[in-house]
Amino acid sequence: MSEKELGKKWDRCLADSAIKLGTGLGLGIVFSVLFFKRHTWPISFGSGVGLGMAYANCQNDLRSHYLQHRRQSVFI
Amino acid sequence: AGLVTVGGGIGGTILYAKWDNKFRAAVENNVPYSDWLLGLALGPPSPKSGLPIKKQVRILEESLTSSAKATLQAIGAQEAALQAITRHTLKLKEAMEAEEKSAQWKDLEAALADRTGAVNDAETALSKANEALDSLKSVIDKSKGLKVSAVRPLVLAAEENLHNMVVDLDKVVTKVHSAESEAKIVSQYSELVNEAKQQFQREVSSLTPEIQANWKGLTGKLSSDDLNALIAHAHRRIDQLNRELAEQRVREQIHIDAALEQQKLEDQKALEKAVSTALQHIKEEARLEQERKLSELREVMEAEMRTQLRRQAAAHTDHVRDVLKVQEQELRVDAEQVLSSKMLEQETRYRQLSQEQLDNFTLDMNTAYARLKGMEEAIDSHVVAEEEARKAHQLWLSVEALNYTLKTANADIPTVPLEGAAQAVRDSCHDSDFALALSSALPEESLHRGVYSEASLRARFNSLRSLARRVALIDESHNSLYQYFLSYLQAALLFEEKQEAPPAQLCSEDLDPFKLLSYASYCLEHGDLELAAKLVNQLRGEARRVVEDWLTEARLTLETRQVVSLLSAYANAVGLGTTQAP
């Protein structure tokens, strides 16, 4: 069902963002703990990276239909 | 029934009496009033004319012979009587004249007895002969009454014989009468003598009572007194007798005259009688002679006439033969002509009739054949029409089945695959290209998977609608996440009519997704899936992508429904076309 596609996309997106955010946060925390003497900026940096990546992914996923690969269009 | 039998019996008796006279005589004798009835019915009984002539002749001959016999007998008897009378008379005379002797008396008595017997016999014979002669006479009269020529000579002979017999009989009878009269005289004389003797005897007996009657043989017993008395008496008697004699002599002449007169009268009578009989006899003879002559003449004439007639008959037969020959010829010619014409006519008629018959037959055969052909064609066309009707009916049934399968869709489950029903439809419309085309126009999805019902589509749309609203702003160019956020915000903040009736023509304003969605909702609520699909088709961008599947499904359903309705219409049309009105 085409209507379920968006939902699926959103599911993926949310899951992905959750993972990325969590991973970023975690990495940030780890880096901040490990490398950057518990400064908060790696945590925010890491979560920001995570969030940004998730956002971009999500957006890409949502756009994916409209961005058809050029190779395909050329070959048609 | 009883009346019928009685009437029939009476009628039968009358008829038979008419035919048989003896029967009629018998009936008339035995049944009273039958003679009146039969006289009324048949007329007076006819004489013995029914008897054939031979019988009549035989009767005549028989009566002749019998009468001849009787006459001979009578004559013989009369002769015998005559002889007996004469003998008796002689005997009496002898007895009178001679002295009485007992033997003579006995002879006399014998002769007397003889005479009486002979006379009686003669009388009976005479009566018999007379009867026979009378019967002969009657027979002769009857035969004369017949008026048949063949009998006439016999009749004449019979008459002559009769006449002769009558003559002989009369002669003999006269002889007998004369002898009888003589005998009477002699007997009178003898009686007188006897009377005198008896008187004398009485006187003697009165005088001498003790003496017996037969005084001849008693001469010895008489006494003298008696004798004297007797002699005196005898003398007295003689005197008396002498006196009487004298008287008698005196009266002799007178007596003789009277006797003569008497005799004359008697003689006259006898003469007259004899004359009359002789006259009769002569008349009879003359008549007989005449009749004989007449018959001879008649015979001669008849012979002559016969010869003449024969001649004439011969001439006539010749003439008739000739005429007949000629006539025969003529008639034959005529008949042949007529025959030939009739034959011709019959032939022509026959030919005509047979031709007519043949024509009629041919006509009938042709008509029958044409009718048969017509009937066959009608039946064939009927069969064809029936076949068509059956096929149409089958088609219609299969289409109805197909239609029905569309209804098997429940809430979210599609219908059963339409393959089977579609196959049935295809099977039942081999010869209809239209139907085949239509049945092949069914979309594959519907065949294999089935289609969704309108209700399910409607429900689905309702859930779709909110989603479509949410992504209303997203399209190719606007598809970042921020746009998504904005679109969501718009959907949350924008309120439109749940359902809005779509206008007849869409203008550019109406292409707003929210408007479109409300139009589509309205259409769906009102059952117009087609318009809803059209409206939904106007969506662009992400909303369009979201409702793509729904649209496909809707299209599928619509297509299937269209095809099925077309098929149904077609089946109905075909069915109507092939249905025969009762």
From TrEMBL, chain A:
Pfam families in the record: DUF543
Chief place of localization: mitochondrion
Secretion signal, residue range per the UniProt entry: none
Intracellular or extracellular location(s): Mitochondrion inner membrane
The keyword Mitochondrion appears for this protein: yes
Transmembrane regions listed in the UniProt entry: 18-36
Membrane topology according to the record: Single-pass membrane protein
UniProt keywords, alphabetically: Membrane, Mitochondrion, Mitochondrion inner membrane, Transmembrane, Transmembrane helix
GO cellular component: MICOS complex
Assembly description: Component of the mitochondrial contact site and cristae organizing system (MICOS) complex.
Function: Component of the MICOS complex, a large protein complex of the mitochondrial inner membrane that plays crucial roles in the maintenance of crista junctions, inner membrane architecture, and formation of contact sites to the outer membrane.
Protein family membership: Belongs to the MICOS complex subunit Mic10 family.
Record-given protein name: MICOS complex subunit MIC10
Organism: Dicentrarchus labrax (European seabass)
Top-level taxonomy: Eukaryota, Metazoa, Chordata, Craniata, Vertebrata
From TrEMBL, chain B:
Entry membrane topology: Single-pass membrane protein
Database matches in Pfam families: Mitofilin
The keyword Mitochondrion is assigned to this record: yes
Coiled coil segments of this chain: 224-251
Gene Ontology biological process terms, A to Z: cristae formation
GO CC terms: MICOS complex
Subunit structure: Component of the mitochondrial contact site and cristae organizing system (MICOS) complex.
Name of the protein in question: MICOS complex subunit MIC60
Organism: Dicentrarchus labrax
Record lineage: Eukaryota, Metazoa, Chordata, Craniata, Vertebrata
